[in-house]
Design goal:
The complex is a heterodimer. Chain A contains 11 helices and no strands. Chain A is mainly alpha-helical. Chain A folds into 2 domains: 1-30; 38-246, MetI-like fold. The longest helix of chain A is centred in the first third of the chain and has 33 residues, at 38-70. Helix content of chain B is 39%, strand content 22%. In chain B, helix 5 packs across helix 7. In chain B, a hairpin with a 2-residue loop joins strand 9 (206-211) and strand 10 (214-219). Chain B is globular and about 65 Å long. Chain B has 2 domains: 2-237, P-loop containing nucleotide triphosphate hydrolases (Rossmann fold); 249-321, CBS domain Like, CATH 3.90.1280. Chain B has helices at residues 41-48, 71-75, 93-97, 99-103, 108-122, 126-129, 139-151, 169-186, 197-203, 221-226, 231-237, 241-245, 251-257, 278-286, 308-321; strands spanning 2-10, 16-25, 30-34, 56-61, 64-65, 78-82, 157-161, 189-194, 206-211, 214-219, 270-273, 293-296, 302-306. The chains are: A mainly alpha, B alpha/beta. The structure holds adenosine-5'-diphosphate (ADP) and magnesium ion. Adenosine-5'-diphosphate is lined by residues 11, 13, 15, 17, 35, 37-43 of chain B. Residues 41-42 of chain B line the site of magnesium ion (MG). Chain B: The complex is composed of two ATP-binding proteins (OpuCA), two transmembrane proteins (OpuCB and OpuCD) and a solute-binding protein (OpuCC). Chain B: Residues 2-237 form the ABC transporter domain. Chain B: GO terms for molecular function: ABC-type quaternary ammonium compound transporting activity; ATP binding; ATP hydrolysis activity. Chain B: InterPro entries: AAA+_ATPase, ABC_transporter-like_ATP-bd, ABC_transporter-like_CS, P-loop_NTPase.
């Protein structure tokens, strides 16, 4: 009861702040650059999305198979090494990863994509591993005992039961990625970071806001889309079971 | 038929879980593997479907060494039920039950008919449960579905590892009885792990008692109870072993061995059916519900009077005279 009331108050306070913020931005005409330089804006936005999309897709296509690989009985031992290497990418500050990538690939969008790719590996990998490892051993044992092949166990048992965790990992990675991609500008990768940093340098709130607000909205939108996807991709039986457990 | 030939199992790390075990399970026989926790029951069971390798010796399943069989194909011909049912939460009840037939490529119609048949067999309405998910079922229902799933492709052999072990006593008793009925209909060769001697005596055609990976005794339940092979067996089955054996016999068995006292209309006696277990009979007689019971056959004909003395006489005969088979 108490918790519900508190969460309601927090929600209302949050929306008041949001509305106040937008009232302030519109009152001061802070979105002027988007209107006046619409073409530049769309270019930056497309660059931003491209960086996120390519680095994210690469990370997904590497991390999920890698997560599957290290959870195979035969390759259990490799898990320690692979997770630690991926960990390395994550513990180095994002700016340093960018700088390193620039060192190897020079200035430009390529270095930004590689840096963000490295940065996204860990959350997806970790969640894939955790998801697969959380699949009940007895369930797998029953599957094996009934004569499912290892591939059938992977596709019909392990992956569906790990889907929720894997998608959550991808969501986390991509959402962080959208924010971090603003730094791409610093190594010549473009994106909405261009306006944000220009705004900071020139003490011009209108550029800062016109860059930062779309980045934030993009992150929120993507987060929402992934939650929707989770609903579609996680098998119904599991979702119902989770919901039943919560209530 | 399942034949264990000098089977031993040593786990990595040196634990000798099974030590030179020899026995045969005939076709259609229901054999209970029993023994204290850690004695190797699960290990022995899992060597049959090759979920565990055999370290030494061999297991012959329907004339073929399980070592030489194709594991995947062999497992599809063996029903496997475990304690924690192992149902797949991401699949509907129908998908769960039909998983092996699906792997074997049965067509839709055949699968549907089989599903309906199996659900009726385990006492769940097919259409009501078809599209449900495992978490929507009670523990007892889930375990029933586990049994149906193991029976799905009509395998000749069933391996069951404490299938009713996690259920509360009332549900467990119910499922035991239901399963005995099912076995009457399907007549499988069954290897069934239990740690409960009452369950073993009640369900098994034969009982295999293990200790520390060694076979202590493999025999009919009545033999295990009346003629324990050694002190361990005797201790394991309990000092009330003769009482336990009473659930093995029905009034009819008694009538075949000893003659009933004659019955007069004037006597006040409670009627008892010929199929009633002696355990119930003794309980009734001790309970002061009646000093004597009158035995009736299926048509309701009164065949004679049954008293505690007669039960005692019968049990003495059984304990002393059962030939060592
Ligand atoms: N995977 C394993 N690795 C090593 N030892 C095991 C393994 N599984 C079982 N054991 C050991 O083998 C013995 C028999 O175990 P188990 O067959 O599970 O007994 P039960 O089913 O009768 O309780 C025990 O001592 C147990 O600790
Ligand atoms: Mg066990």
């Amino acid at each position: 009861m108490m918790n519900k009331r508190i969460s309601q108050i927090v929600k209302i306070a949050f929306w008041i702040i949001v509305i106040a913020f937008f009232a302030w931005t519109f009152a001061n005409d802070l979105f002027r650059p988007i209107v006046e330089e619409f073409r530049t804006f769309t270019n930056l936005l497309i660059q931003h999305i491209t960086i996120v999309l390519i680095s994210g897709l690469l990370a997904i296509f590497l991390s999920i198979p890698l997560g599957i690989f290290v959870t195979r009985e035969k390759f259990r031992k490799s898990e320690f090494w692979i997770v630690n290497i991926a960990n390395l990418g994550q513990t180095i500050p994002s700016l340093a990863v960018l700088a390193l990538a620039m060192g190897f690939l020079g200035i430009g969008i390529k270095a930004a994509i590689v840096a963000l790719f490295i940065y996204s590996l860990l959350p997806i990998l970790q969640n894939t591993i955790a998801g697969i490892q959380s699949v009940d051993e007895n369930m797998k044992d029953a599957a094996r005992g009934m004569g499912l092949t290892p591939a059938q166990i992977l596709w019909q048992i392990e992956l569906p039961n790990a889907a929720s965790s894997i998608i959550a990992g991808i969501r986390t990675a991509i959402v962080i990625n959208i924010g971090t991609a603003a730094l791409a500008y610093l190594i010549g990768g473009g994106g909405l970071g261009a306006w944000i940093f220009t705004g900071i340098r020139l003490f011009d709130n209108s550029f800062l806001i016109s860059g930062a607000v779309p980045v934030t909205l993009l992150a929120i939108l993507i987060d929402y889309l992934f939650r929707l996807m989770q609903k579609l991709l996680v098998p119904k039986g599991l979702r119902l079971a989770e919901e039943a457990q919560k209530s | 038929m399942i034949e264990f030939k000098n089977v031993s199992k040593v786990y990595n790390g040196g634990v000798k879980a099974i030590d030179n075990v020899n026995f045969k399970v005939e076709n259609g026989e229901f054999v209970i593997l029993i023994g204290p926790s850690g004695c190797g029951k699960t290990t022995l069971l899992r060597m049959v479907n090759q979920l565990e390798d055999i370290s030494e010796g061999d297991i012959i399943l329907n004339n073929t060494s399980v070592k030489q069989s194709n594991k995947i194909e062999m497992r599809r011909k063996i029903g496997y039920v475990i304690q924690s049912n192992g149902l797949f939460p991401n699949m509907t009840i129908e998908k769960n039950v039909m998983i092996v037939p699906d792997l074997l490529g049965w067509d839709r119609k055949k699968q549907q008919d089989r599903f309906n048949y199996l659900m009726e067999l385990i006492g769940l309405h097919p259409d009501e449960y078809r599209k449900r998910y495992p978490h929507e079922l009670s523990g007892g229902q889930q375990q029933r579905v586990g049994v149906a799933r193991a029976l799905a492709a009509d395998p000749p052999v069933m391996l069951m590892d404490e299938p009713f072990g996690a259920l509360d006593p009332i549900i467990r008793t119910k499922l035991q009885e239901e399963f005995l009925q099912i076995q009457k209909e399907v007549n499988k060769t069954i290897l069934f792990v239990s740690h409960d001697i009452d369950e073993a005596v009640k369900m098994g055609d034969k009982v295999a008692l293990l200790r520390g990976g060694k076979m202590m005794q493999y025999d009919y339940p009545s033999e295990i109870l009346h003629h324990p092979a050694n002190d361990f067996v005797s201790e394991f089955v309990g000092q009330d072993r003769v009482l336990k054996s009473t659930s093995l016999y029905s009034v009819k068995d008694l009538v075949d061995e000893v003659s009933l006292d004659s019955y007069h209309e004037a006597d006040s006696a409670q009627p008892v059916n010929e199929d009633t277990s002696l355990r119930i009979v003794i309980s009734k007689l001790l309970n002061q519900e009646a000093d004597q019971l009158v035995v009736e056959d299926k048509q309701g004909n009164k065949k004679g009077k049954l008293t505690l003395e007669l039960v005692e006489k019968f049990l003495h005969k059984e304990v002393k005279e059962t030939p060592n088979r």
